[in-house]
Amino acid sequence: MDRYNDLTSGSAEGQQDHALHGDHDRRGSKSHRHVEHCFRYLRQSLLCCGDTALEGQDPNTDKAATNGVGAVHMCKDFEAIRSWAEDNRLVDHKGE
């Protein structure tokens, strides 16, 4: 849960900004390793923050929007989420 809060509250914002807007002018293997590091960081952030909570309608607008205030979030096992998604998908095709 702490990792989810870090990402949504901006505590990890510096690392995310670095990953998305890092020094793109570098060439060679050092730059390649840097890009791999950034993708691993973003992937791990998503995998560690599996959250199936639905957030309700923002009461301050008539638009289809949510502000997330008061929503209860709980991290889940990513493999359990993947398994559920595969078991409940509309088309029985694994994309292979």
UniProtKB/TrEMBL annotation:
UniProt keyword annotation of Cell cycle present: no
Organism ancestry: Eukaryota, Fungi, Dikarya, Ascomycota, Pezizomycotina
PANTHER family xref list: TAT PATHWAY SIGNAL SEQUENCE, YALI0B05434P
Pathway: Mycotoxin biosynthesis
GO process terms (BP): mycotoxin biosynthetic process
Record field: compositional bias (Polar residues): 1-14
Skewed-composition ranges (Basic and acidic residues): 15-28
Family: Belongs to the ustYa family.
Alphabetized InterPro entries for the sequence: UstYa-like
Keyword Oxidoreductase set for record: yes
Name of the protein this chain belongs to: Uncharacterized protein
One Pfam family of this chain: UstYa
Chain segments carrying region Disordered: 1-29
Organism per entry: Beauveria bassiana (White muscardine disease fungus)
GO MF terms held by the record: oxidoreductase activity
Entry keyword set: Oxidoreductase
